[in-house]
Amino acid sequence: MEKRVVFRSWWLPYLLVAPQLAVTIIFFFLPAGQAIWTSLLSQDPFGINVEFVGLDNFVALFHDEHYLASFKVTAVFSVLVAGLGLSISLVLAVFADRAMLGAGFYKTLLIWPYAVAHAVAAVLWLFLFNPTLGVVAHWIKGFGIAWDPLLRDNDAMILVVVAAVWNQISYNFLFFLAGLQSIPKSLIEAAAIDGAGPARRFATIVFPLLSPTTFFLLVVNVVYAFFQTFAIIDAATSGGPGNATEILVYKVYKDGFKALDLGSSAAQSVILMLIVIALTVIQFRYVERKVQY
Amino acid sequence: MDVSTTPERKARLPFLARYNMLPRTILRGRREGMVENRPLLDVLTHIVLIIGVAVIAFPVYVTFVASTITAEQVLAAPMPLVPGPHLIDNYREALLRGAGNSAAPVWMMMVNSLVSALIIAIGKIAISLISAFAIVYFRFPLRNFFFWMIFVTLMLPVEVRILPTYKIVSDLGMLDSYAGLTLPLIASATATFLFRQFFLTIPDELAEAARIDGAGPMRFFWDVVIPMSKTSMAALFVIQFIYGWNQYLWPLIVTTQENYYTVVIGIKRMIVGGGDAAIEWQLVMATAIMAMLPPAAVVILMQRWFVKGLVDTEK
């Protein structure tokens, strides 16, 4: 789409885009270029001996069992976060869409967790799940189940998944609710009149019509689990115990900032960039059709 | 009970439906979300929603309780689940002294969070507003290339270019400064898109009229575009304020001095190192509540704009 009516000036438009472009170039393109360049080099932590090694860093990564393990952790984590987050919020949205009394009240009470910072959410759940003083940990132990997210791998994974899902439910809920409300009510009424009960209507009409929203949210949730959960991992477990919750983004940070393995960290950055690009392309090709039923 | 499923009704209803003459009992309430009367399902609806609300609120409730009791009570597993009398003491201590060994007073962190969230939100809106204006209302060489460049930043989240970005900020001498905390986060492809989409819906007649009246582009921008964009700006502000307030990774690496800690970073620093007994949980929890309040208030008080902003920025 283009405007028919435009203004004329040879310098003004450049001046207007300059601030955005300056920030973009200095803080986005330069570092990204640097990451790509560094990923092709081998250097010591002080940058004294630098050598061009081509794709060696990438080859090394894919032979590194820690890196492959981190891929696996990321996959498990994102499947759990996206799966649980989407199902819980879908259930809540379906019922909130149905509620007559107090719909606005429920909505307000379900959307505010969006405002809680990821790191704060992590600390909240860390406190509840803390093996010695956590309230929820106390209940779990009351059932005779061993529990220690600071030492046991699976417990740590549960902790970060719960915190991540809790933080994301409101977002999913809002989009599901909007999707549900945009389904033409005549369709639902027609089905009701033909004798389809609520469950049948959901399975044959509502859920299929909701699939664009679901797919969109799936992509958003995978991006969320891959990239935005850094704060949850860092604040709750720091990737531990061992490397049990070390997702890819956390490993880039740890290898770069803590281990100062610059070449490997940069190569990991480049791989992550490729993943974001793929996800963004999927999202944008898809968004075109998002509103159509 | 369920009128729509009795056989006689079913036979007659398609006709009624076609003429939109369904009995009130069936039509009633679809606006709010119901097709028919199902009292049992109504009860289930409220049970599910109440459980959902309770589970979601529970962590924050426990946090609040923990912020009103003494350190000894927090450590007595399990801690009480009823608020205690130490609310004012704990919040005053956190605000004025902080918690843990290295943390700065929380009031200072709150100020840092507020300043950086405001700079990020207003900065993003300002630079996106003018760049979208340039892209929509001018034809100039490289216009599409610039637009493409802004678009690509969507694919470069800070998490994947963290080390080189840190290096650039440190080379520019911006570590431990508000500029370092905010500038790298100020570019915004989503805001630029949003304004671009919105500007494209402004009728051409307005720009034409402005031109005939002899108004230049900037006059048109201030007198027509800005007033018309107020709703979009408010919606974006809500989203970007929350985004700025809740930043974690970036402030974590560019702030080494306590005076520049934001409150989200401060909480993390308070629980690092030291065993359970060393962490002053009642103060950490008071800080957590204070860290949540401003963005939560923004979401609840500006709910309509928040929802609009969330939906708009994903288009």
Describe the structure.
The complex is a heterodimer of chains A (293) and B (315). Chain A contains twelve helices and two strands, in the order H-E-E-H-H-H-H-H-H-H-H-H-H-H. Chain A has 293 residues and is mainly alpha-helical. Chain A starts with 11 loop residues before the first helix and ends in a 6-residue tail after the last helix. The radius of gyration of chain B is 27 Å and the shape is globular. In chain B, helix 6 crosses helix 10. With 315 residues, chain B is an all-alpha fold. Helices cover 67% and strands 0% of the residues of chain B.
How do the strands and helices of this protein lay out in sequence?
The complex is a heterodimer of chains A (293) and B (315).
Chain A: H1 12-38, E1 41-43, E2 50-52, H2 56-62, H3 65-98, H4 103-111, H5 118-129, H6 135-142, H7 153-181, H8 185-193, H9 198-228, H10 230-236, H11 248-258, H12 262-287
Antiparallel strand pairs in A: 1-2
Chain B: H1 7-18, H2 24-27, H3 39-66, H4 71-75, H5 87-96, H6 106-137, H7 143-152, H8 162-171, H9 178-182, H10 189-200, H11 204-212, H12 217-228, H13 230-245, H14 249-254, H15 263-271, H16 281-301, H17 303-313
How is this structure best summarized?
The complex is a heterodimer of chains A (293) and B (315). Chain A has 293 residues and is an all-alpha fold.
Helical segment count of chain A: 12
Radius of gyration of chain A: 24 Å
Please count the beta strands of chain A (DSSP E, at least 2 residues each): 2
Largest sheet of chain A: 2 strands, antiparallel
Q: Strand count, sense and closure of the main sheet of chain B? A: none
Shape of chain A: globular
The rough form of chain B would be described as globular
Tally the helices of chain B. Answer: 17
Percent helix of chain A: over 70%
Q: Uncertain regions of chain B: pLDDT < 50 for 5+ in a row?
A: 1-34
Oligomeric form of this entry? heterodimer
N-to-C series of helices and strands of chain A: HEEHHHHHHHHHHH
- Kindly state the number of beta strands of chain B: 0
